[in-house]
Write a structure and sequence with these properties.
The chain has 111 residues and is mostly helical. 73% of the residues lie in helices and 0% in strands. Helix 3 (27-46) packs antiparallel against helix 4 (55-69) and helix 4 (55-69) packs antiparallel against helix 5.
């Protein structure tokens, strides 16, 4: 959700002619709310018991905390978001690895 918000803001900033219709009176509150919800979801995933004390979990937790505090920077939100975009592949790799480890095999579901 955090990356979707960043992508939407990038579209509005860099292709104003095509995507200016997205910006209305509720654009900034919606963007801020989606950043908070997405960052909280990522933070909760990083703090789950089996992964809590691993290196990738600490990195994902820091990433989520940066995303949580980024709306507080006001117009300077682009600086933390650039850091979030640069480190997004590492966070996605950690999240997909955790997802594959916790997947339940199909044989155990049928019995």
């Amino acid at each position: 959700m955090v990356l979707l918000v960043i992508f939407t803001v990038c579209l509005v900033l860099f292709a104003k002619e095509q995507f200016s219709w997205l910006v209305g009176s509720m654009f900034l509150p919606a963007i801020g709310g989606m950043i908070f919800v997405g960052a909280l979801a990522v933070l909760l995933a990083a703090l789950m018991p089996p992964y809590r004390k691993t290196g990738p979990a600490i990195g994902v937790a820091i990433w989520a905390l940066i995303a949580l505090t980024s709306p507080l920077f006001g117009l300077m939100f682009l600086m933390p978001w650039s850091l979030l975009l640069l480190t997004a592949p590492l966070v996605l790799l950690a999240l997909f690895t955790w997802w594959k480890q916790t997947a339940v095999p199909a044989e155990t579901l049928s019995s």
